[in-house]
Amino acid sequence: MMTHFRIGAAMALALVATAGYAQTDPNAVAQIPTTAFKPVATATSPDKSLVVTIAFDNDGRPTYAVARKGKAILNPGKLGVMFTDAPKIERNLELIGKSTDSSDSSWTQPFGEWKTIRDRHNELTLRFREKAGLKREMDVVFRIFDDGIGFRYNFPDQPNLHQANISDELTEFAFAQNGTAWWKPAYQWNREEYLYNKTSLDAVSTAQTVMTVKLADGTHAALHEAALVDYAAMNLARSEGNTLKASLTPGAGAPKVTRMAPFASPWRTVILSDDAPGLYMSHLELNLNEPNKLGDVSWIKPAKFVGVWWNMIKGDWSWATGPIHGATTANVKKYIDFAAANRIPGVLVEGWNVGWDGDWFGNGNAMQFDQPTPDFDAAELYRYARAKGVHLVGHNETGGSASHYDSQLDRAFSYARDHGIPVVKTGYVTDAGQIERVDADGTKKREWHEGQWMVNHYLRVVQTAAKYKVGIDSHEPVKDTGLRRTYPNWLAREGGRGMEYNSWPGKNPPNHEANMFFTQWLGGPMDFTPGVLSLEGQGGSAILSTEAKQLALYVVIYSPVQMAADTPENYAKHMNAFQFIRDVPVDWSETRVLNGEVGEYVTVARKDRAGDDWYLGSITNEEPRTLNVALDFLDAGRSYTAEVYRDGAGADYRTSARHSIAIEKRVVKKGDTLSLALAPGGGQAIRFAATGQARRR
Ligand code: NOJ
Ligand code: CA
Question: Boundaries of each Glycosyl-hydrolase 97 catalytic domain copy (predicted)?
Answer without folding.
Answer: 309-495
